[in-house]
Amino acid sequence: MTFRISDDLEQLETFFPYQLAVAAERFSRDLMEVYNKTYGLTREEWRLLFLLSREGQIASNELAQRTTLDKVQLSRASQRLADKGLITRNVSPKDRRLKLYQSTEKGRALFAEIKPQVDARASDIVSSMSKEQKAALQMGLNGLLEALGAPEQMFGD
Amino acid sequence: MTFRISDDLEQLETFFPYQLAVAAERFSRDLMEVYNKTYGLTREEWRLLFLLSREGQIASNELAQRTTLDKVQLSRASQRLADKGLITRNVSPKDRRLKLYQSTEKGRALFAEIKPQVDARASDIVSSMSKEQKAALQMGLNGLLEALGAPEQMFGD
DNA sequence: GGCAAATTGTTTCAGATGAAACGAAATCAT
DNA sequence: ATGATTTCGTTTCATCTGAAACAATTTGCC
Fold this sequence. Notes:
The structure is a homodimer. By secondary structure, the first copy, chain A, is mainly alpha-helical. Chain A has one domain (about 10-120): Winged helix-like DNA-binding domain superfamily/Winged helix DNA-binding domain (Arc Repressor Mutant, subunit A, Orthogonal Bundle), CATH 1.10.10.10. The first copy, chain A, is built from 6 helices and 3 strands. Chain A has helices at about 10-40, 45-55, 60-65, 70-85, 105-125, 130-145; strands spanning about 55-60, 85-90, 100-105. A 3-stranded antiparallel beta sheet of chain A has the order 1-3-2. In chain A, strand 2 (about 85-90) and strand 3 (about 100-105) form a beta hairpin. The radius of gyration of chain A is 18 Å and the shape is globular. At the A-B interface, helix 1, helix 5 and helix 6 of A face helix 1, helix 5 and helix 6 of B. Chain A binds a DNA duplex through helix 4.
């Protein structure tokens, strides 16, 4: 298989965004098989649960920065998670417009159950890539995120 | 900025799919500013118009293979494009279940108008990446697409 | 202090989306 | 040939989604 890196810029610019979208969508769909089909969580719910499971208590304004969720998505996802008893939402005493989100024990337990399965699925996909390809993807993706002006270190480190 | 390539596999599996999704979504959104906000085309409509603008007449079954559109998306997108007079849809004489899609003059003209703007926007983003990053991204993405079992060479070459 | 402006979470409403049902046409088996 | 099965494109229905409107709260300004 041959790759025309950038000798034809026109091709790179038009074809590449499509490749990126296709790859991301397929990957996302594969992972959704786990947390959605099996556990009925939407992508937003899963991301939120993910974040809350490692952090303690997070305010909504801080959450918006660290996720790609806007306030509407956050409101809806958190509402559903709260209905399922996976997280709690409390009005912040400091600023009563804000809400403080926190994972419940049930939420953390569910996360601990799902997480390894999602990891395994992702690992299945990535494992067939060569070490060089993985490294290249990681480097290229970081460069792209930077170019896109994405906030770095979303999940802390 | 530092990149932890893959010394922590756990990180690679969980963090990376998220990065991929974020990058693809942001990129897609940036490009949509052009063909959606300005010209009112959905992503599916744009993809279909893109494909039809360089090919002559394409049957629906062939289209499904070369795009990620399923039959429902194709049906809806083509219907809207036909309503706008950008493409034509004719029942195939060979197999009256199939439909033959073709871009109209108006469709090609609109594509010719939008395309450079989309390219320019994509170029804006990618241009701030180093040559190495671009090459790495292209290589990594191809590897990932292969790992995902994606059909290669979607737009011919 | 008090009122305009800004911020935040939620709701509303129209349009988009996915899964399943459906009807038409072709293919297959006998 | 004929009936069953398969393969299409479309429609339906329920849900999701995004943009704008909204109410509650805080901030800024005087």
